[in-house]
Amino acid sequence: MKRTPHVRASAALLAAAAALTPALGQAQAAPDAPDAPVSAASVPAASGFAPTVGAVLDLGYASQALALGERDKGPHLGGAELTVESPLGPWLHGRLTAAAHSHDNKIEKHFEEVWLGTTALPAGLQLRGGRFLSQVGYLNEQHPHADDFSTRPLLYRSFLGGHYFDNGLRLNWTAPTDFYWRTGLEVFSGKQLTREAEGAPRAGVFTLSTKFGGDVGREHSWQLGLSYLGNRRAAQAHHDDEDAGMPGHGHSHEGHAHGAQLAGKHLWLVDGVWKWAPGGNNRAQQLRLAFEFARQSGLGEHAARGAASTAGYLAAVYRFHPEWEAGVRTDWLRAQLPHGDHFHAARLREYSLMLAWKPSHQQTLRLQYSQQTGAKGFDNAGKAITLQYIISLGAHGAHSF
Amino acid sequence: MLAAALPLGAAAQGQGLQVFACEPEWAALVKALAPQAQVTAATHARQDAHHIEARPALIAALRRAHLAVCTGASLEVGWLPMLQARAGNAAVRDGQPGMFYAAQQVELIDRRASVGFNDGDVHPEGNPHFHLDPARLAQVARALSQRLAQIDPPQAAAYAARHTAWQADWARGTAQWQQRAAPLKGQRVVGQHNTFAYLWHWLGVQQIADLEPKPGTPPTPSHLQSVLAQVRQAPPIAITHALYQDAQPAQWLARQLGEDKVAVLALPSTVTDDGPSADLASWMDALVTQLLKTLPAR
After folding, report:
1. How does pLDDT run across A183-220, given as a tens digit for each residue?
2. B238-242/B188-191 β-pairing
3. Which candidate, A112, A104, A110, A111, places its Cα nearest to that of A76?
4. Of A50, A194, B27, B172, which sits 20 to 30 A from B289 (CA to CA)?
5. pLDDT of residue B298
């Protein structure tokens, strides 16, 4: 309920900007362009309002629910997304994503993205405002339906609520260098990460991140990232509740799947991706390796000095045929769980194996086996077989690296 | 001169015009029309240009570009919009002079009013592989030379002169290829995807079957069986596939039809980095030569 005004505000922002856009209503769909070749000197007018609509449906069946899991036991809605995207005049671009998924066998709905971004700032600068996915880490700014596994890594499930989106502002700068180099600053309300906080500042979360990347020869490409997320709401969170932040006990007082399970004032993330495609033809075959590590500190007033939670994963996915991919991932989490006025050390490891069939770029059928071992402080660790089917209809935006 | 005050003052001052070409054929065309430009080709002949990743190296190249030259007609829809969004380069967003779509300069074949969910990777705008038609390529060259002049006005006269020379060479080449390829008229081939449709159209070659069950879907055993049944009575002169496509389905079909009778041709669908197809003219020449070799000796 608390987020409703923000959603309304964001939607109003989008609508207001659309109304102010002079080109609004002058739809220029490229496919309807006239047959006659366009005179070369004439440049097509800047795109006005040309919305595209796309939908993604992720349906799943899980034999068990996992500790810190995202998927309910049995048949479940992994996610449903409806996205409307459009240029808004010559300088702005807007996007709205309404999403739903099942959690504790109830359907939860929210706006995941309602944002406006600039497209024409000079010097490689980009400004974005509204509600959007934070760009910390490697996976966070990607939509989960594009993931290689049916569950996000433990790192995301424990520290970032699966995927962290919030209301805020972002400023990015992409350098005009030979290699890729992007640096960005985000300021968020923080309410999507730490829901209950007393007297928290309006700008509860800020992030700083930088990414580098490039190619090595024709077959190899890489990207490295470093990010920091400062959470000023974490300090004011309701840590005194017996259950708060106790993943093993669920998070019933929150009543929502999002929001981080583990709170801390500081979160550092390192990520690295390396991809190899024989002959550079990634459509035919490709090996993808991804690694992320995160350290959360500033766990609260009762935490010992230097107390920290850490999590990481290493994933390898091999596309051995244009339509087939197999992957393996190992995840680990070493957490400090708040328990009244003290902390309990907790541990969890997770291993996942997956096989995916992608008969077209609109469909994915994935079978995954996940096993959680070495659990301490998590009483529902187990094994699960998940079957997942993803279908996308209409326009679906290009995916990032 | 006022050139330095223009947005592309940097280019005019000799730092070099930076051009991002989505496909190698456009990189080759830019090099022919603007030899001083620094050109980055985002893809190569051994890649499927429909399925490129928005890699960091490509974002960086687009970030630096004064001009981007792409096919359009949704060929790059899976990756170019992401590159534009990430690069944050105002000069190369859609609608700007710095974003040149070749498909906007020519008429495309196989346009569709609508594309159904099960139609495969077809483009409503039409077949985007029009660079395989020398006439359409010449239309693009004319428009591109004008765009280069618009982007880099101090060099306008040089671009016009280069284009005039290139156009004359290309017209001469086109006439020669057409003359040499005359025996190919009416011949039948089996293809994979509609990559070479414009070439067949120009040379009067008939593609009687497609190894792909639907556009963008790799060949399946059952589909290959039906192609075999279809062409067994009147086999084609060749089974062709692009360099980036798996050769096995074409080879299988050739074995079934009798290898000595039917050739398998791995054709470059665009210019290659080196070898006999390193520029546009030698690439066209090599395509015609490869096809002629499949004809029975007289």
Report:
1. 999 999 998 888 777 777 778 999 999 999 999 999 99
2. parallel
3. A104
4. B27
5. 52
Task: Decide if A4 touches B, using CB distance below 8 A.
Answer: no
Angle at A323 between CA A319 and CA A324, to 5 degrees: 45
Nearest CA-CA distance, residue B252 and chain A, Å: 18
Angle between the N-to-C axes of helices B24-33 and B156-180, in degrees from 0 to 180, rounded to the nearest 10: 120
- A179 reaches B (C-beta below 8 A): yes
A355–chain B Cβ distance below 8 A for any pair:
no
Coil, strand or helix: which one is A202? coil
| CB A230, CB A265: distance < 8 Å | yes
Q: How many CA atoms does the CB half-sphere of A4 hold within 13 Å?
A: 2
Inter-chain CB proximity A47 and B79 less than 8 Å:
no
Cα–Cα nearest to A78, from A182, A151, A183: A151
Single out the residue of A141, A15, A29, A33 nearest to residue A88, CA to CA. A15
**Is A49 strand, coil or helix?**
coil
Question: What's the Cα-to-Cα distance from A109 to each of A65, A106, A162, A167, A256, rounded to whole Å?
Answer: 21, 10, 15, 16, 10
One-letter identity of residue A238: H
Q: What is the pLDDT of residue A159?
A: 94
pLDDT at B14: 40
Q: pLDDT value at position B80?
A: 95
Note which residues in 95-124 of chain A have CB less than 8 A from chain B.
119-122, 124
**Global pTM?**
0.87
The partner residue sitting opposite A221, judged by closest CB among B51, B56, B85, is B56
pLDDT over 50 (residue B31): yes
Q: What's the residue count for chain B?
A: 298
Tens-digit pLDDT profile for residues A212-244: 999 999 999 999 999 999 998 886 665 444 444
DSSP chain B: --GGGSTTHHIIIII--EEEESSHHHHHHHHHH-TTSEEEES--TTS-TTS--B-HHHHHHHHH-SEEEE--TTTTTTTHHHHHHHH--GGGSTTSTTEEEGGGGSPPSS--S---TTS-S--TT----GGGSHHHHHHHHHHHHHHHHHHSGGGHHHHHHHHHHHHHHHHHHHHHHHHHTGGGTT-EEEESSSTTHHHHHHHT-EEEEESSSSTTSPP-HHHHHHHHHHHSSS--SEEEEETTS-SHHHHHHHHHH-TTTSEEEEE-SS--SSGGGSSHHHHHHHHHHHHHHTSPP-
Position with higher pLDDT, A201 vs A16: A201
Q: Establish, for the pair of chains A and B, how many residue pairs have beta carbons separated by less than 8 Å.
A: 157
CA closest to B76 among chain A residues: A398
**Distance between CA atoms of A244 and A235, rounded to whole angstroms?**
13
Which of the 8 DSSP states describes residue A177?
S
- A377 CB contacts (<8 Å, ≥6 apart)? A248, A335, A337, A344, A345, A346, A347, A348
Which one has a higher pLDDT value, B266 or A28?
B266
- Mention every residue, 6+ apart, whose C-beta is less than 8 A from residue A194: A200, A204, A231, A233, A234, A237, A259, A260, A263
Cα–Cα distance between A259 and A253 in angstroms, integer? 12
Residue A234 CA to residue A237 CA, distance in Å, equals 5
Strand partners, A182: A174, A211
Q: Does A37 touch chain B (CB under 8 A)?
A: yes
Neighbours of B36 (CB within 10 A): 12
Q: How far B183 CA sits from the closest chain A CA (Å)?
A: 32
- Nearest residue on chain A to B125, alpha-carbon basis: A31
- Cα–Cα dist A128/A210, whole Å: 17
